[in-house]
Amino acid sequence: MRAVIIEKDEKILQQIQSILQKVDSGYELVGTAVNGQSGYELISALRPNLVIMDIELPRMNGMSMLKKLRAEAFDFKVVVLSGTENFQYAKQAIELSVDGYIMKPIRPLELKRALMQICEKMRNEYWLNASFTVENLLIGCMNGQYQPENKLNEITVRNYGFTVEDSCGMFILWLGEDFEKNKAEAVHLLKRSLQKENKFRVCILPLEVWQEIFVIVYQTAEFEMAEQYFQENIVPMLCSNLNGDVVCVWKRIDHMMDLWQYRTKIPLLRQWNLTLGRGVLISEKGIAGRELELLPLKYPAELELRARDCTLAGRKKELEKCFEELCEMLEGQFCFPETLKDCLIRFSLNIVNMYKIQWELGAEIQVLILILEIGQATSWKQIRRAIEELLNYFNFEKEDLQGNEAFSTMVRKAVEMAKKYYSEGITLEETASRLYVSEEYLSTQFKKETQSSFTETVRKFRIEKIKDLLLNSKLKLNQIAELTGYSDPKYMSRVFKEEVGMLPTEFRKKMQ
Question: Is residue 44 included in any domain, yes or no?
Fold first, then answer.
């Protein structure tokens, strides 16, 4: 249902838009305007099903705009918003057949009720629309718009030879992140392959809102034959012509008007792609006919130990290989998709927990979100991307000294803490305390592995930050000193000259 909002107040416009989205997913906001003239032109061009409009609009008030549109035979539902209790406005609204008249300030519940009533009214009136097509009839079924109606059945039987109470088959093509890129080619391939088939009729619906292509099979009693035809001819053809993810699902529906109920169950079927693999038409019958491994999957203890060692040592590349080995192992297992995902999530959480113990994890919410993405995945491509993003949150590969894998975990963490907290004046003593080692031991190992003392390393990070602020900001020296952990800008300048060979002001002039 296409909707337009004409409202001069931006806050109220946003409020209406939010309410509109919550009332019914079928509502689509196609345009907004802030004055009557723009609203008139917008409605004339877009021809929406619903208009929500303010009465007191600049450049043409709402009633004048509505009267002009009605005179030009534009037909749409309309909810009027009024900021004043003007009897004349109310009278004109009745004469112009408005569907709702709401006083400002808007009460969300009142507007929701009016919109829901309009939605219900439009559904009940829809069968009266003489411009039925098979496509919009089926989309209506997928949106749950129809109930058994004698009049509706009379129209659809007369025009198309079936009713929404008849059975149908539903073939779903999921293309993953390549939907937009491959949609047009997929539709072309389906039309070319199905146009000569005379044992059943089809309607191809590329629905962007769900990022899937639906093929509804109707006017046949041979649904098993249709399913076999799709498995033997359509699925191989799509897999050989389309790159990227190609996941195909089949579902038999007893009553066409119940398409909306089964559409929501498709993701549960679709995830069987992880187990069945490319080129298989996924169906409930096909799954039921296979023997499944019911026990929880276990990954090798050696693999987890190796992954833990890589985590402790900060070896990201090797950790990536551990995850890839696990994925390759699981791809060969035939079991419930949830079992595969549970195994992956357990492995990921163990590594995350190990990372949190040994390192400092700074994006825990994002990490949990990425693990949830594994739980919702349809393809191994999605799982691998989620794992890649998960590992990107692990701050293994640091600049300068931290990139050297020859450093021990303790020294690498000490360098990281020096870089992170140098502006707070972190000391060797504080760092040793956080790492649960003695100050003397840390100092000795730090110097041995980095060839610099802890104090020299902290000073290096400070100097680099000072350089950055001198070149990329207009901050004064006292501000730069404060940001880099120096209480005295003169002392900062002296240290800077010792390291760089010139004062900060000279450095700024020379380098800019």
Answer: yes
Q: Residue 87 is part of which domain span?
A: 2-126
Q: What is the pLDDT of residues 357-405, one digit of tens each?
A: 655 555 566 677 778 888 889 999 999 999 988 887 776 644 344 444 5
Q: What mean pLDDT comes out for the span 296-319?
A: 83
**Predicted pLDDT at 399:** 39
Model pTM? Answer: 0.53
How far apart CA 31 and CA 17 sit, in angstroms, is 10
Question: Are 119 and 138 members of one domain?
Answer: no
Residue 111's Cα: distance from chain center in Å?
29
Q: Are residues 366 and 497 in the same domain?
A: no
Asked whether residue 296 is assigned to any structural domain, the reply reads no
In 127-266, the DSSP E strands lie at 168-174, 201-207, 212-218, 247-253
The answer, yes or no, to whether residue 188 has pLDDT greater than 90, is: yes
Check whether residue 203 and residue 97 sit in a common domain: no
Q: How far apart are CA 107 and CA 341, in angstroms?
A: 45
Extract the runs of DSSP E, i.e. beta strands, from 298-411: none
Count of structural domains, the chain? 4
In a 13 Å sphere around the CA of 142, the CA atoms on its Cβ side amount to: 25
The pLDDT, as a whole number, for residue 398 is 44
Laid out side by side, the sheet with 77-82 consists of 28-33, 2-6, 50-54, 77-82, 100-103
Domain's final residue, options 375, 392, 409: 392
Distance CA 469, CA 479 (A): 10
Decide if pLDDT at 240 tops 90: yes
Report phi then psi at 48, rounded to 5: -75, 165
Mark whether 76 and 155 lie in a shared domain: no
Q: What is the mean pLDDT of the chain?
A: 85
Among 96, 126, 156, residue at a domain's last position = 126
